[in-house]
């Protein structure tokens, strides 16, 4: 990992979160979960199921707890080991909401007004969106910094939010004259799979909330559905080129090649060398076969975990206790720094 953030001399810690707001897709897997598994072997890792973020848009109260278990099962099925990394639901650790309030008083409205994800999600309806959706990046800063998280594995869509977390950390350290109290968290974005695009539109990211199910490959899709979605994926009339430069201006093809490269863990150039000159009639079935080969064992394992919800609950509950033990003293220090009354 990169050098320790400026002025901060504490230990390195990896923090990341995933929303329990629907079925996970290939973008979540390649952009986040696959990285979690690698990082847990080398670092102190905290992986949070961010249910407080999920409720910034409507969530059915009858479904939310199960959606949380669903994400936990996905973590476990991908290979996140609860003996190594901490896995827990955000709402069980009060430090998140408390620190978010303090950070609301540090962050500036102008900073939030620049957040493109809010603009994308709200569209023309920004007046009707929840205050929570607008404030989402401040809660995200609190999530990371309640653990003094130094490194944050995320997809490219989260880059701007991470910059805001750094700004909040820096302003807090400066305003209260506590240099190095909070680290300036570094995003871990690079690598294949950082930005997986919709299968229907190469200019939009693959997303849970896209109304078209054909736009994404879900963890819950079976082999036939995966093959159908890849067969129907938007492409152009050309053949597969020899070099990455020739993918320029062909976003849908570029996305499919990127997915193949990320799943097969080889450079794009190698994939192109293998398929150069071929049409989609050859490439798409090969991609479908690869996607099924990688996702099927995860789905099967996930279903086994989901059949034992008590086991998941035990893991989440013990993860929440461990997370609380780290975050609560850090937020108590913040209270002291800010000068709140105490006995
Ligand atoms: N298309 C993507 N490519 C690469 N990484 C992605 N991530 C999300 N989409 C892609 C990364 O997955 C992690 C968890 O994301 P999340 O579920 O917490 O929230 P999100 O980024 O808002 O994901 P969605 O699918 O777009 O959800 P909706 O539609 O509900 O907003 C993050 O690290 C994210 O970067």
Account of the 3D structure:
The protein is mainly α. The protein has 2 domains: 14-188 and 309-338, HUPs (Rossmann fold, 3-Layer(aba) Sandwich); 213-303, Tyrosyl-Transfer RNA Synthetase (Orthogonal Bundle), CATH 1.10.240. 52% of the residues lie in helices and 6% in strands. The protein has a 3-stranded parallel sheet with strand order 1-2-3. Strands 4-5 form a two-stranded parallel sheet. Helix 7 crosses helix 8. It binds adenosine-5'-tetraphosphate.
Entry summary:
By secondary structure, the protein is mainly α. The chain contains 13 helices and five strands.
Q: How many DSSP-defined strands?
A: 5
Mean pLDDT score, rounded?
A: 94
Question: By helix and strand content, what is the structural category?
Answer: mainly alpha
Strand order of the largest sheet: 1-2-3
Q: What is the CATH T-level topology of the largest domain? A: Rossmann fold
CATH architecture of the largest domain: 3-Layer(aba) Sandwich
Q: Which small compounds were modeled alongside the protein?
A: adenosine-5'-tetraphosphate
Low-confidence stretches: none
Global morphology: globular
Could you state the order of secondary-structure elements as H and E?
Answer: EHEHHEHHHHEHEHHHHH
Q: How much of the polypeptide forms β-strand, as a percent range?
A: 5-15%
The total number of structural domains is 2
Q: Report the radius of gyration as a whole number of Å.
A: 21 Å
What portion of residues is helical?
40-55%
What separation lies between the terminal Cα atoms? 41 Å
- CATH class category of the largest domain: Alpha Beta
Sheet with the most strands, sense and barrel status: 3 strands, parallel
Number of helices: 13
């Amino acid at each position: 990992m990169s050098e320790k953030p400026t002025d901060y001399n504490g230990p390195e810690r990896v923090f990341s979160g995933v929303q329990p707001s629907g079925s996970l897709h290939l973008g979540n897997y390649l952009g986040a979960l696959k990285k979690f598994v690698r990082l847990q072997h080398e670092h102190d890792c905290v992986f949070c199921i961010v249910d407080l973020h999920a409720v910034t848009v409507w969530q059915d109260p009858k479904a939310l707890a199960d959606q949380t278990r669903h994400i936990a099962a996905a973590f476990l099925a991908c290979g996140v080991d609860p003996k190594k990394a901490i896995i827990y639901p955000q709402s069980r650790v009060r430090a998140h909401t408390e620190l978010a309030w303090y950070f609301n008083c540090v962050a500036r409205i102008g900073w939030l007004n620049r957040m493109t994800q809010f603009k994308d999600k709200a569209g023309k309806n920004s007046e009707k969106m929840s205050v929570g959706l607008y404030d989402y990046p401040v809660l995200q800063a609190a999530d990371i910094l309640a653990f003094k998280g130094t490194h944050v594995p995320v997809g490219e869509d989260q880059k701007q939010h991470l910059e805001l977390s750094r700004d909040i950390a820096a302003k807090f350290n400066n305003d209260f004259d506590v240099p190095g109290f909070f680290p300036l968290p570094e995003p871990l974005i690079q690598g294949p799979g950082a930005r997986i695009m919709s299968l229907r539109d190469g200019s939009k990211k693959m997303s849970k909330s896209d109304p078209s199910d054909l736009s994404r490959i879900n963890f819950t899709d079976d082999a036939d559905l995966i093959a159908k979605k890849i067969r129907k994926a938007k492409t152009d009339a050309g053949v597969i080129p020899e070099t990455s430069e020739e993918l320029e201006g062909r976003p849908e093809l570029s996305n499919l090649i990127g997915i193949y490269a990320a799943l097969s863990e080889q450079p794009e150039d190698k994939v192109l060398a293998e398929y150069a000159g071929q049409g989609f009639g050859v490439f798409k079935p090969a991609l479908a076969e690869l996607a099924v080969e990688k996702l099927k064992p995860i789905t099967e394992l996930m279903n086994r975990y989901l059949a034992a919800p008590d086991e998941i609950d035990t893991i989440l509950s013990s993860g929440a206790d461990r997370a609380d033990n780290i975050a609560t003293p850090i937020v108590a220090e913040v209270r002291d720094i800010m000068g709140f009354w105490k006995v």
